[in-house]
Amino acid sequence: MSEPYxxxxxxxxxxxxxAAARLAKAGKKVLVLEQHSKVGGYMTxxxxxxxxxxxxxxxxxxxxxxxxxxxxxxxALGILDKVKxxxxxxxxxxxxxxxxxxxxxxxxxxxxxxxxKFPAEAKGIDELFENQRTINRAMQALIGLTGEERGKSLSxxxxxxxxxxxxxxYWNATLSEMLDDFIHDQKLIAVFTQLSGxxxxxxxxxxxxxxxxxxxxxxxxxxxxxVGGSQSVSNALAEVIQENGGEIKLNTLVTKIVIxxxxxxAVQTKDGSEYRxxxxxxxxxxxxxxxxxxxxxxxxxxYVQKLESLKIGLSAFQVFIGVDHxxxxxxxxxxxxxxxxxxxxxxxxxxxxxxxxxKAPFAIxxxxxxxxxxxxxxxxxxxxxxxxxxxxxxxxHEKESYAQYKALKEEVARTLIRRAEAFVPGLSSHIExxxxxxxxxxxxxxxxxxxxxFGWDNTPEQSMMNRLPQETPIENLYLAGAxxxxxGGQSAVLxxxxxxxxxxxxxxxx
Length: 510
Fold this sequence. Notes:
- This protein has 17 helices and 19 strands.
- By secondary structure, the protein is an alpha/beta fold.
- The strands form 4 sheets. Strands 1, 2, 10, 11, 12, 13 and 19 form a 7-stranded mixed beta sheet that branches.
- Strand 1, helix 1 (14-25) and strand 2 (30-33) form a beta-alpha-beta unit.
- The longest helix is centred in the N-terminal third of the chain and has 23 residues, at 122-144.
């Protein structure tokens, strides 16, 4: 048994790393335990030959100065000078059968472009963008109450209470219900809600406020990538932890949270070690945290009921391709093409839910456009990504042979490559390296149930403050990551880690 730590953190995903970095910078003795061979969770990359493949990041939001919510977070975490952000403009290209739009990074320019394309909806567009800006101010103030700048946030709340009216009005609304108050053209709605794919739910199920926070942070706070991808952010956080005396143990699976007198006091690992701690942050998925590492017998009945009632979000299917050809000229304005077969978002998400790769929306991302370190000169790293359910084809032939599972993965990959060749001619003939990731792959590497990339599904009933709070019924145990407030996505999990850390610091100073 080791000497006790101030804080032990289970999991080195973005939320766990952020919590650990903040606490280590505050002088706490911190231990991070990660089951994988590297830090990052979904904020990571992997190497195959000469190619470096980004696992998840299309772009990071909110790094503008001033105005970017993430910029303050990066500064608080001590990583602003350790990463190399690249601002992207336009943000992405939205492609439909008869319509293509390069989406400007500047919200005002985007607003004017939409009015030019949809003049009959000009008034509604103006009102919608004003609504988004107001929600942005309100949510920045609410989220800011949990951090170092709470005084500024409290002042905003006290002297500008009117900014909370849209948040109150749409708190339990779906995105479709909110948009009905402003715009009605189906094509415009599809274009405006393109980023709903980043939230994993169609507009008629997606939380209006969660989407607004996501949309606002990109459109009002900046759209960025990093040299070295999201792994560079994870590595920077790990560096901060270690520079401030923290420890990170990789390949170390936590198997039990030790409870004494309704307090979390230690963790046990697969190799039989036990680490005592005064506080504990779990960045592991919530179902495993409570049902595998703790046990229902330690939890209030209503908390167990809530956990069992929450629905898990969708996963993804990805084809990581290293090509011996330079396709950057086909991506003249953006590295990210978002492809759709219809303007009906419910129909688009129906293709996701049913696992129809021949029709489901997907993205073609050429990372070599924005990151010259991803591939050698004259070669490119291209990723094809589509949301995909875990339960499709009986859990991707989970109970069948590995050969059947592999054949299914390859079939879906070939389908996406064939579709991509309409935009990237000859892609299949230039492949040097290819890896395919299914929902089962996501589950294997991250231990997230059903390979979810979102945590809980982002419906109004499960989003924002309707998600699990950082505090838990177990004293001194806190949550960080996609399963807790404010939700899934890289910027959201970083915020969740900062919030968990701040709650520990507040309690420790009482």
